[in-house]
Amino acid sequence: MNEPLKQKSLPPGENEFRLLVDSLQDYAVAVLDPEGRITAWNTGAAMIHGFQEEEIVGSYFQRLYTSEDQAKSLPQHALRQAAADGRYEEEGWRVRKDGVLFWANALITALRDRQGRLTGFGMVTRDLTLQKREKEASRRSEHELRHQARHFEEQLIASGESLAGIIASMAHEFNNPLGIVRGFTQDILSEIGPSDPRYRALQIIDEETRRCEKIIRDVSDYASPKGAAVCSVSVAHVIEKSLERVESHLEKQRVTAVMDLQPDLPEIYADPQQLEKMFVNLYLNAIDAMPEGGTLTVKAALESRDAPGLHRGQKQEPEEKSSSPAPLPLRGGEEKGEGVLITVTDTGAGIEPENLQKIFRPFFTLKKGKSLGLGLSICERIVKSHGGWIEVESRPGHGASFRIHLPLD
Ligand SMILES: Nc1ncnc2c1ncn2[C@@H]1O[C@H](COP(=O)(O)OP(=O)(O)OP(=O)(O)O)[C@@H](O)[C@H]1O
Ligand SMILES: [Mg+2]
After folding, report:
1. Of the residues 280, 283, 290, 367, which should be mutated to test ligand 1's pocket, given the most ligand atoms within 8 Å of the CB?
2. Ligand 1 mean position to 376 CA, how many Å?
3. What strands lie across the sheet with 101-112, from one edge to the other?
4. What SS3 class is residue 318?
5. Which atom of ligand 1 is nearest to the CA of 348?
6. How many helices (H) and strands (E) does the chain have?
7. Is 231-407 the same fold as 14-127?
8. Ligand 1 pocket check for 374: Cβ under 6 Å
9. Burial level of 390, CB count in 10 A (0-12/13-18/19+)?
10. CB-CB contact of 24 with 43 (8 Å)
11. Domain ranges in the chain?
């Protein structure tokens, strides 16, 4: 005859064990006879199923199942499987005494005596309703997110929003928080000295924030170049101003800048800001190529536009240039006439011949992890938008020289 768990006429040790089982509140522990009648019921079972021990002991455990599952004989199936395999685990709905359903994980174990005869079953049930709801909610929200993303994508396509537009608005969204981070970082940096243990970390935050800002600037410049604001510009002035902008980089890398500007250069029609951006990109590349220091030379002179020129990315020795004049490549609408030739030359590592053709491609970079590789493609776009063209020659190990041809008007 099976007795409820709370009865205490037990051998020493087992009493404590049963008290422990009885006190479990998150687990409904029940003992069933071989036919499935409940013979023992702990406190956890009373809490989870809502039936007190005296109400349920003697009932068939089928009572805990939904009527649909009873009709499908799931309880009998569970007992048969447990008897056959030693254990049977399932998840499904169970009915509390008050009729409320809960999602249960139930493990039914066959209990056998020393002779192997089936004496009953142990059943441990957990209420997983909350976990199930959370899982469903996260599945639903994932589904909703996907749905929203698809909807957004369709709307974008339908509205004809260009990638450039999306990048521009993303750049705008990113710039504000980055500006705030940098502002606060600089405030704190100015308040603490280099001896402060946080100083280096803050410097890194500052540098990385600047790097992010540059990436955003480059990507949005590349995706949606600004319309040129053309006016009469002194090339010499733009060159000087752009050199000032990289002064700290020159100093840091011990690079000497030399300017060789033809006096009385006529002004050209150009967008000074875009020209400045182009020069800064070229100078920064040159400085990057001279980690041990060197010389950056910027020359500007009038050139006759029917003079021979190099194709972009082609390497050509000076002797060849004068001995075999090639027709001027017509790019970006240039015509014969007068123009300005600006040369930016460095004494750095130079560019391998196989890379000369690639360096103007967007996202080509040998500074992986540090740069995006958009600098020269932005330069090329700026020069072209001014009706000019850019070319490069280099002797690896001896430096590189970028030539920018700009028409006078
Ligand atoms: N003056 C130079 N000397 C040597 N290599 C150069 C020079 N200028 C450009 N390069 C090479 O061309 C590559 C492309 O240059 P580009 O300016 O487009 O991109 P980046 O400098 O790598 O990245 P970003 O300009 O976007 O920060 C560089 O990674 C570098 O390998
Ligand atoms: Mg660059």
Report:
1. 367
2. 7
3. 38-41, 28-32, 118-127, 101-112, 87-95
4. helix
5. 3
6. 14, 12
7. no
8. yes
9. buried
10. yes
11. 14-127, 137-223, 231-407
365 lines ligand 1 (CB under 6 A): yes
For domain 137-223, give the CATH number: 1.10.287
What is the whole-number distance in angstroms between the Cα of residue 377 and the centre of ligand 1?
A: 10
Q: Could you say which architecture CATH assigns to the domain 231-407? A: 2-Layer Sandwich (3.30)
The neighbourhood of ligand 2, an ion, using CB within 5 A, equals 285, 375
- Nearest-CA residue for ligand 1 atom 19 is 373
Q: Is 233 in the pocket of ligand 1 (CB under 6 A)?
A: no
CATH of domain 14-127: 3.30.450.20
Phi/psi for 33 (5° steps) reads -85, 175
| Token representation of residue 170 | 């993303």
Please state the separation of Cα 260 from the chain's center in Å: 45
Provide the terminal-to-terminal Cα distance of the chain, rounded to the nearest Å. 109
pLDDT tens, the chain, 409 aa long = 444 454 446 666 777 877 888 788 889 999 999 999 999 999 999 999 999 999 999 999 999 999 999 999 999 999 999 999 999 999 999 999 999 999 999 999 999 999 999 999 999 999 999 888 888 887 877 777 777 777 776 776 666 666 667 777 788 788 888 888 999 999 999 999 889 888 999 999 998 898 888 888 888 887 766 666 889 999 999 999 999 999 999 999 999 999 999 998 999 999 999 999 999 999 999 999 999 999 999 999 998 865 444 434 333 333 333 222 233 333 333 445 689 999 999 999 999 999 998 999 988 999 887 788 889 999 999 999 999 999 999 999 999 999 999 998 7
Token pair for 11: 């051998």
